[in-house]
Amino acid sequence: MENWIPETDRKSCIACYGNMSQLAGIRRCVLSDGKAAGVEAADLYTGGGLELTVLPGRGMDIAGCRYRGIPVSYISKTGITAPAYHDPRQSQWLKSFFAGMLTTCGISNAGPDCVDTHPVLGEVLYGLHGDISNTAADQVGTWEDWTPEGYQMKVTGRVSEGRLHGEHLSLRRTVTARLGEKCFRIRDEYHNEGSTPDPLMFFYHINIGHPILDEGSCFVSASKRVWAETQVAKEGMERFRICDKPKADVLEQQFFHEFHTDEEGRTTVALVNDHLKLGFYLTYCPRQLPCFAQWKVGREGEYAFAFEPGNCHPIGRSEQRKQGQLEYLEPMETHLVEMELGIVDGEDEIAHLRERIDQYGVGGK
Question: What is the pLDDT of residues 291-326, one digit of tens each?
């Protein structure tokens, strides 16, 4: 059977459906089992085959992502865990890293645990990848209705990070999607709510799993510079684009990129499985997210591929300061990030994607 395409104009939907929830919408719930108990969630489904689970109870991050029933995101062995299980010491963060479609790392530290000096508090311990993903959101809301661009769905919430004598930062995230589409958009606004300048460190762990990740899957990008910093990654530089089947005892590799962009300053990266004729892409502006890491884990049971754009590389706050690259937010200042993430389905869409990426830098930068 040919893939069914849903009606997307308002008149046809009124004629065909008694309620829009039959086709698309948002279902809010609270998870109730095991370590996930108490985590607030919102399932968003577009009617175009795309389904997401947004977690206001876990930093507005995104756990499951499916397309026409096919799993897209990688879920780690921890599964979804409630913030109560978060342990900020050293690398204990890994015990609550469900990965999912999106885990936000930061926002006061991104990278290894470290000690940094604060002007009032003195020496402060910062855990691996910070606390924001293990913080529940407030001001959570969902909205769906007809707009001039079609039927739109939206999940929004604010996540705050602050302490006495220290930082007062917040992240307001809005996840939107439209009826019939197989993509979604994220708008993040990082605010300094305090009265003094404070460091801002964050990156996005966007995680793809099997079956889009498989032997022969290819990382597609308009890279103008690629490098590695560990010996294991340097040994894999010749095959940084190509994925292998999962094996036992394979060490993770991380590659760093600088990209060409189009005339509007955007770039696109993708993981494409030509055998399945399916791929997943990310489009964003490097001026908003100047750093990018590509994460490959080919180990059995931990088979994952991640896009990691951010305002820093995952090297930790103290090292970022030593390099003179620590970004500060002034009081009342905002750092805006906008991204689009989605599916390419079929040979024609994959070919168009590759052609578009090949054109970056031609008339752009």
Answer: 999 999 999 999 999 999 999 999 999 999 999 999
Q: What is the percent of the chain with per-residue pLDDT over 70, rounded to a whole number? A: 98
> What is the rounded distance in angstroms from the CA atom of residue 319 to the CA atom of residue 313?
10
The predicted structure's pLDDT at residue 2: 59
Sheet holding 40-45, edge to edge: 25-30, 40-45, 50-55, 61-67, 70-71
The count of other CB atoms within 10 Å of the CB of residue 160 is 18
Which one, of 145, 126, 129, 146, lies nearest residue 94 by Cα?
A: 129
Q: Model pTM?
A: 0.96
Number of structural domains (the chain) is: 1
Q: Which residues constitute the domain of residue 160?
A: 10-358
Q: Are 273 and 217 in contact (CB under 8 A)?
A: yes
Two tokens at 38?
């108490």
- Residues in contact with 207: Cβ distance below 8 Å, sequence separation at least 6, in sequence order: 73, 74, 99, 100, 101, 102, 103, 304, 305, 306
What is each CA distance from 325 to 255, 312, 317, 321, in whole angstroms?
A: 19, 8, 10, 6
* Residue 5 within a domain: no
Is residue 298 in a domain?
Answer: yes
**Region of 47 on the Ramachandran plot (φ > 0 left; ψ -120 to 50 alpha; else beta):** left
Return the CATH number at 177.
2.70.98.10
